[in-house]
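[retry 2/3] DUF4238 domain-containing protein: previous attempt timed out, resubmitting with same input.
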Amino acid sequence: MGPTSVHSAGQGCIVTLTQTLGEAMRITSEFAIKGPVPFVDVHVDRDNLLFLDPSAIRNGSDALSKAANDTLIRFFAEVLRLRSSASPTDHAIGQELLSHLHEPNETRLGMSVASKFGRAFGSQHATDLWDLLGKSREAQASVMTRLEHLRLFADGVGYDLISDATTRILFGHLCDFTQSMMKRYPELMFGAKSVDAEVFDTSSLTWEARSTELPIADGRTLLLVPKGWVYWRTLMDVGPFYNRYASATVQDEQTVIRSDGKAIKPSKKSIREANRDMRTLNRDQATKYKTQKGRDLVAEYQEFVDREFDGLSDFEIIRRTGE
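[retry 2/3] DUF4238 domain-containing protein: success.
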């Protein structure tokens, strides 16, 4: 991520790139750490155009990634369980769980995007998400079972919302990772501060208070992120699902077999022109195929994403955080 790590990847243009993008306020420069490092070497004085992505985490093979993936599954499953309950008490508990997904800034990840949820995930946005889950046919049909599935179906859900919610849900894991890096790189201990944080506990399925020590950079607490956990967008995204599954199934449905056995298919272009709202078609097709045909298009897409997954290289991380 710093000059050494990208240089080791054999990128011949690294000198020009780093001179152009600048390294002055990256973590490694701020703490005088020599790379390569296992964490995302972000600029500490501003947001960086990368996002914490649940699919990238799901594809991690180390123990921390597996534990983090389990936490994400447990959190969203509990929210969906409480939302589907008829009990007002369960509803209050579920809304309380979501109310803790306020915008984090310790990682320096993410940038503002157009979204009805806005830049910060606050109490009103938690209410909006709770209402959305209650009205969602996809959730009721057990099609939307993970946090990242919101991106496929929910209007106004941008990369930042998924990244911010993921950061909050995994705050405890990120603290553990940061403290392991502080032991590995003692330079990070300089000026470190003990802070009180709320972390999601998978045993009690509630938020618990925790005191943890974090580095201080640019006058603010810093939370380190494993570099395998980030991507430049959400890997499960609205457009690819629309193109590969939603519109493709419509094409299959509208295919006519002539008397001579030849299949006449409508063009993908004509289907797109008739179904310009991608999320509406995503919702309709995913729900119909799960409830009427027993085919889980979202599960198929997730398997495709995992099969094709290729994390960002050090060079790509530097390039995307350089602007």
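[retry 2/3] DUF4238 domain-containing protein: Strands lie at 51-52, 193-201, 206-214, 216-217, 220-221, 230-231, 256-257, 263-264.
[retry 2/3] clearing retry counter.
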